[in-house]
Predict the structure.
Amino acid sequence: MEEEQTRELWRIERLQVFFKTRGNDIMAVNEFSLSIYQGERLCLLGESGCGKSVFGMALLKLLPENAEVLGKAYYKGMETVGMSEKTFARLRGTEIAVIPQGAGSSLDPTMRCGKQVEECLRLHEKENSQVCRQKVLSLLKRLELPRLPGIARDYPFELSGGMKQRILVAAGIVCHPQFLLVDEPTKGLDWGCRDKVITLLKKLVEDEETSVLLITHDFNVAKSLADRVVVMYAGEIVEYGMREDVLERPVHPYSKGLLAALPQNGFQAIEGFSPPLDQIPKGCRFHPRCPHATGRCAQEHPNLTDLGEGREVRCFYAEG
Amino acid sequence: MIKYIGKRVLSAAGVLLVVSMLTFFVMQMTPGDTAYVMLTHTFFGTGDLITQEDLDIATEMYDLDRPLTVQYGEWMLGALKGDLGTSYIYKKPVMDLLKLKLPYTCILGFLAFFLGLLLAVPLGILTAVYRNRFLDQAIRIGSVLASSVPGFWLGLILIMFFSVKLKWLPVSGMNEGLKSIVLPCVTLMLGMMPVMIRVTRSSVLDVMGQDYMLFAKAKGQSLFQALLHHGVRNLLPPVITMASLQMGNILGGSVVIETVFMWPGIGNLLYNSIMAKDTNMLQGCVLTIALGYILSMICADILNAALNPKTYRGGGRMA
Amino acid sequence: MKCRKFSVQRNLLLWIGGAILLVIIFVLVFGPSLCTHDPLKVDYTLKLRAPCREYPFGTDGMGRSVAARVVYGLRTSMKIAIVVMLISCVIGVCVGVLSGYVGGSVDLILMRVMEVVLAFPDTILALAILGTLGGGMKNQIIALALVRWTKYAKMARDETMRLKKEEYMEAAVAMGNGRFRIVLRYVLPGIIGQILVLATMSIGPIILSGATLSFLGLGVQLPNPELGLLINEGRDFIRSAGHISLFPGLVTALTTLGFNLFGEGLNDYFDPRLKEKAVSD
């Protein structure tokens, strides 16, 4: 326990994110408490619209102006929620980096790919362009990009989706960050590309010993990359624990439902839809769709229950 | 890239040819016989004394009885050699007059254009970065006001205030060098700035909402660094296109402003030639201005093409 | 908070613009009956009076009431602006819808025609047309309409092409509607909102360019009052009697401002994308 405390990279306490709109405030992330340890790969799993990307962007302080973040987040003991933009900008790129979602739109269409990777190096490590270029090229080589070194001089529109995603990976990791947020790395890629990107990403972060927060809705991605898994539903954590526990023996009805919905398990989708964030149901947020819901579920909002072995579940009937 | 420029110039040449035809045929349809109009200027100053005989002589002298198409062909051949005919009122080749007056319009136009851009683009960026704050609202209200004021009236008011009342600047003409260009320049600038501010603002807002700007911030860049590295090249195209269109407004506005301020440029010449029904002169002025406008649009297209890697990397190499 | 302020300010444009327009309409309708002076009556004994109670805007070089002339001038200017707007709108929408809906070579030819028209700066084209046809109100309207139609055509074409891709258009074709019927029943209703907004927004610029032409002496002819012409009349007196140009100009600017604000407000009101943007930014 003592040792774990020292290795803690992020400690997030009751983080909440609101979006202010004309009508009313929408809560996108509710009371999110979590620790991320050095060198571990944590996966945030959930449907689109459950607030997982919002949480990631909140950690990086990159939410739009109308968002309000409450709670505390400590990075290596430094509180970041209240930190000034200027101070935090110094952490971005070097300590805390991101591989954004949407390979197509996150690359500047008018800048050569190599330069976009190099940019972060030039900004943080004051080295001459020759050294930077060498570093970038070797990184691109490790990512198994073809046509080196010519590809560094290509523009994004000249690359395929998988190549663009790998350029993004390179741009995120080039400064050897301690913490890497990977947002939907497989979005919009076909199956072959998906596996390749994940394998390369896994190898890279293992080599670099980077801590990763992986945001995805893809069970397989979570399976192949994560050490620990957090399942999110409608803006809050419903279950977390080690990968094998959560993905193979889920306790929460929602995680169970997700597992059953996989093709190899028979495509049994959960009934209904996840609620829009401005119409969160009373009581347990999952109860309208839950097959085991009781009267209590509709009235009372369950807290996370500790199941031991670093496992917690937000369900009244978790043990039973 | 060279191929693109060639294509663009060629299509512009086509447009210019049609423009010249249109101008020529429309101008020659002037109510009242061309020979008659010419004679009023050439010999008498009034039409009362013109006889049928005079008309016949003039018609023959200037070959006015031949079909318009032939006349156009000859005029075109002449125009290619730099001969745009003779002005009826000034009795000089149109080309010489244009050469004489063009520099004045260019000085005034370019000065207003570049100063206007120099002010409007940064203001547009500021309003976008500080959107919905006081500065933004103030500039927006100012530009709505400025776009509602007729330019020629603004010119008169400026004259009344700065020249007549305060006696700081000359009323009109251009005898006092730098001092005399201030008012016409400011008037022209105020005409184009509101649109430019607006376009810049919306273009910057658009770029700031893009994912790559977010990524740039995630790499540790500040908003201004991100705008500098990734913004400029992406936000410029609409600004450049609008600027080239504003060049048209400056050229058109020059007729009015040069008339108000007695600035001896092409606009003034055009106005005088309309008033005197000096067809050749008018034709020359209109064509020169259309040529300038088309050139500015070509420049904008080429600049935009140079900013967009897709045009000069040949449409994309598929991986 | 910021977003709410934004929305109030948006509606504000519509309200201020609307209020200005109401005043203008009032002047247009009741102005002539409120005027005690004849705008055309020359009386040299009264010339160049400064603004006073009897003559709120003063008198001009021939002793005519500037206020009365402005009231009648505004009528002329508005008449020109509205007629030009209607003509150019009809021409532009017809060309645009035809071009966008039929496409192919029709589109190609019409677009080339537009390209040629757009190769002239607006004012220059209008001046060239007036230089050929001669001045006067009728020719002024023709010249302005020939300049302005391209704006509507461009928008109508783009919108028609966008609508054509919609699925309900395919359904309408599949149901056996004729082309003309489809244009009338499905295309026009789909673009009418934007056309109305554009039409409102274009009145301001039309007033300005109309006034410009009259100012240059190529539009409405003396002694009839028109705003641009009135400003021109005052040019000879800018040293002695500035009010002769000042007031017509102020009225021109105010009218244009009213239409610009109102158009802008309408645009925000009808443009759903802008609303979303307001929330997200």
